[in-house]
Structure formats: C-alpha cells, structure tokens
Amino acid sequence: MSALPAPARWLEVTVDQPDDPEMAAFMVEALLELPAGGVQETPSGLRVHLPDSLEGLSADPGAWAEALARKLGALMGSADPWPVATRWQEHRDWAECWRQGLGPRRIPPRLVIAPSWAPGELTDAEIRITIDPGMAFGTAEHATTRGCLRLVQTVVASGDLVADVGSGSGILAIAAACLGARRVLAYESDEWSCEALRENLEANGVLARVDIHPGEVSGPELVEAGPFHGILANMQAFILLPLLSAFRESLVPGGWLIVSGILRTEESSMREALGRHGFDVTAEDGEGEWWTGLARYRNEAI
What we know:
The strands form three sheets. A seven-stranded mixed beta sheet has the order 10-9-8-11-12-14-13, with helices on both faces. It contains ten helices and 14 strands. It folds into two domains: 9-99, Alpha-Beta Plaits (2-Layer Sandwich), CATH 3.30.70; 105-297, 3-Layer(aba) Sandwich (Rossmann fold). 30% of the residues lie in helices and 29% in strands.
C-alpha cells in the first residue's frame, strides 16, 4: 500500500496549560484525541500540529477553533471558551520537529529524564528515567515535578517502602524505585493515566517493585498499606490538606513527606497545616510560582 501524501500545510494549535496537574493531564488527552501525533509543552502553552485534511479545518478553521475552545472550556469546568490560538504552517515533518525539541533533562544530582528516542550519555552516578510526553502528567517539564525529583534524591534509602499519591505518569514512583526503594505503591484515580503509568513502569524496568492502585485513595487505605518510610504527594493544596492526618498515621517514626503542587501564595498556610499535624519542614524547593516542601513527622511513635 502506498503512503498517503503529505499535507500541504498544518494548523498549529496552542492552548493555555492548566496549572492543576490533573486538569493538565485531561487537556493533553483531549488534544491527543483531535488526533495529534504529539503534544508539545511550550512557554506559550500546550501545542499540537494538525493536517489540513482533518475534517472541518480547511473549510472553516475559525469555526473549528471556536468549537474546540468551547469543548476544552467545558472539560475544564468553565462556562467560558478556553483560550485557543491557531495559525497555518507550511508542511514540515512536525512529528520529527517535535521530537527534536525534547531532549534529556538533568535533575541534579543524579536523575536524567529523557524520552525514549533521545540518546544521552550518563555518568556512573546518574540514573536515566524514560518518560515519553503526551501520556500523563509528569515528564519533568513542570516545576512541581522537578521540585519533587530534586528533594526525593535526598531522602530515599535502600529498602524503603514509599507511597506516591496522585502518581500520574509514575515519574516520582519510578524515581523512588530507581533510587533504591524496595517497594512503591502508586495511587492514581484516572484510568487513562493508570495505563500510561503501567507502560512507563515497564519501560523503566520497575514494574515488579511498583504496585498500581487505581481509584481515589482514602485515609484508611493508606494507613492499612503502611507504615511507609516516605510519601510523595504532588497535587493541589485543597486535595492535600484533608490527607495530612492519614499521611501522619501511615508513616514510620521520623518518616518523610514531600508535598508539591503548592503555589507560593499557599506556602504559609501549608506550613501551618503541616505543623498542626506534627510535621517539621526540613527542606524546600522553589521554582517560579511553585513551592515544594520536605517534611518529617516529629513524633517518636505513630
């Protein structure tokens, strides 16, 4: 069978990226369904390139874009259309161009996050984690993920039992396993993300040491599965706060907790909440508008 002819032009579509990691994952999924060969994260937002042969594009691109904006707005729970910008581009191999723009990202001191197609030499001390974009939230392209990755390298010890709550792509669970955790429990409520999570675990050779727990995580479930040496939680503050009691009760004495997804404006209230639940913030990471904290449970007994 002969190959289909290349389109004469492509529509470049850029949409605002939601701050919430879970909503960003939904947005990526929606863009991939357009269909798009890949979703690129840029300073301007999430970007895809669509062939002009796609139904509705050439006939009335303006109406198509307006319909997409309404659809994305509804997906994000907004009554208003979601910001969508479009422009035509002459034919190029956008799938290849997209890949060329994504290479290994080093997260000092030891982690290197890279897509499967990107080569890269490692030092003896470095660990490569393979994550392809466009699968689920968590590719080290967001400040909250990078903050967690920097801090987790300072606390995971060989033989640890770790929980990753709101696992997304599984990048944090994979990092914990690669850094020496004996076992990691990855909790993820989104079914589509769980599929991507499993693929990523297999790609990184840690499927045998990371257990996927689909569905919303509950406090009693965490406590029963513990006690954990450490917990990773990269999610919005309003989701984190009700779980702090369960985090405390499911940790070993002196266990660690990494929280992220916290805006700078929320840092003070999060520190206060951690303190009320018996946690001391012992280290922090800040990037842009985001704050990530490492805390330890100070009580000698649970």
